[in-house]
Amino acid sequence: MKKTLLFSIVVVLAFSPVLFAGGRSQSRTSTQKAALTPNGQFPLTSTKAQLSAVSIDASWQNNLNNNKVTAWYEDKTNVHINWTVLNHQTIRDELNLLIAAGEYPDMIIYGGLSPAEIFSYGTQGIFLPLEGLYEQHGYYSKRAYDRIDSLPGALVQTDGHIYALGSINECFHCMYMEKLWFNQKWLKTLGLSTPTTTDEFYNVLKAFKTRDPNGNGKADEIPLVGAVNIGDGFNFILSAFMYWGQDYMSLNNGRVVFNPVQDDFKEGMLYIRKLVSEGLLDPVTFTQDQDQLKALATQDEQLVGSFPGFYFANALNQWQDTPDHRVLDYPALSPLKGPKGIRWTQYTNTGYNTNQVIITDHCKDPDLAFRWIDGLYEDEVTLIMGHGMEGDGWLKPAAGAVGINGKPAIYDVPRRSHNTLMDFADNVLNLNNTADMRLGQVLDTSDPMAQYDAEPWLYTNTRDQMAPYSDQSKQLPLVINFTEAENTELAILTEQIDTYMKEAMVAFATGIRDINRGWDSFKADLTNMNYARYIQLYQTGYDRQYGKK
Fold it and tell me: What is the DSSP secondary structure assignment for residue 341, as one 8-state letter?
C-alpha cells in the first residue's frame, strides 16, 4: 500500500546569492515569483523565468549548457536554467564542499549524494521538504508514481518528509544484474550441454581448460574470468548455495539473516576456492580492470569461456563492433542449482531511484522549481530526454512496427557508434523511463541480427534466464529508510563489514586464507565488528517500513 504522506510543510527560504563551482556569482531567479499556468500545462509561465541547478557533466552526453534537449525544454517551459556541471566521478564530494560553503543552487539533479546525506541536509533545512509541493503541483509525477505501488511511500523519510524526488527507470535487465555470460560456441564444439548445477558447471569449466575448445592447439583457454567493479562471479556462484542477498543479508520469514556466518557461505567459498586452485576461475579477476578484461575477451583467438557482469559489453563491446559478432556466442547462463537444491537470482534494482531531484533552501520560487521538475515526467519529455530530438536521436516507427516487448513500437533508434556523444540527458533528466518506454523501441524482426542489439539482448536474456529464479520473499528490500542516528551508526558498521568481507572473500578464493582453518576466526572477526547490531538496525528499519501496520 502507498504510504500516507504528511501534508504540513514549513519552508524556510534563504535569499543570498550562490557562488558556483566556476567561481562566479550567478543570480538564480528573480525575487518576484512566477505566475504559473495550471498544473500539467506548458509553458509553465507566460514570462521568461530563471532557476539554477547543478548536475553531472556526463561522459555519455553533451554538456547540459550545450545540449539540444535542454534548449528544447527551456522553450517548452519558458524557464532558463543556469547549469553548473560537475564531473560525474567527483560530484558527490564537490557538492558536499559547495553545501558546506553555502554556495549551492536552487536544484540538485543526479548529484550522487547518499540517502543519509540527503536526510541529514533535509533535517538541517538545507533541502526543502517536497511533499507539500507534490500534493499542490504534482501532475505528471503523480501520474507516474501512481503506477508503482511503493511510490511515493519509499521516498518518505523517517521524519515524514520527502527531501528528494525519485526517477523511474524500469530497466528490466538491471533488476537481475548478477549474470554470467557463457560461451555456447565452445559447448557445441566439445559436444557438451549447458550446465545447470554446480557439479556440471565445474565439469564444463574443466573441459574448457583441458580440451582445446578454440582449436588452436594451445592450452590458452580461460574458463572463467572477471574484473574489479565489473564482476567476480561470487554473487552468481554463492546464489547456488544460499539466498545470497545484497549487503550480505537475506530474509527468512521476515527476519534479517546475516549470510557470511552461515555454514552455506563456507561451502560456497570452498567451491569457489576449488575453481581458483584448479585454474578454472582466473585469479586476475580480483586485480584487473575492465580494459584488461576486454583485451582478453576480444583477441582474434577466442580465449574466454565465461565472464560475470550485468552487461556483456563490459567484455565484448556490442555485436556490431567486432568482426566475428562475438557477443552471439555468449548468452547468459541461468542460475546454477547447488547441493541443497537452491537456484536463485539476486534482485538488484527496484526500477526507481529515490534520490534524483532536490530543491534547496536557496530557491526563491520552489513552486516554479517543482513545476519544472514535474514536467520532466511527461511522456514526450521522457522520450526526448532519453533519446534526443526526433530525427536526431530517434525516428517515428513505421506502421505496424513492434517494440522489444512485442507491443506497438513507440520510437525507432537508428544504429550508430556507441562512442558517439549525444544530445540527450539519459539518466539525468529522464525521470519517467517506464518499462513500456524502454521496451517500446522498434525491434526489426526482418533483421535476424536486431535481437542482438544491446537492449533486446539484455531483455531477453534476463527474461528467459534470470527472472524465473527470483524469490523476493528472500530478499531484503532495497529501499529502507533510517533515522539520522541509525544512518550514522550504519555508516561505520557498513564500512567496516564491507571492507573486511571483500578482502576476506578474495583471500579465501585465492588461498591466502584457508577457510577451513580460519572459519572460526573469520566469524569471530565479524562478531567483534558487531554484525549483530548491523542486522538489528536493518531489522528495525525493515519492521518500521514494511512490517504489519
Answer: S
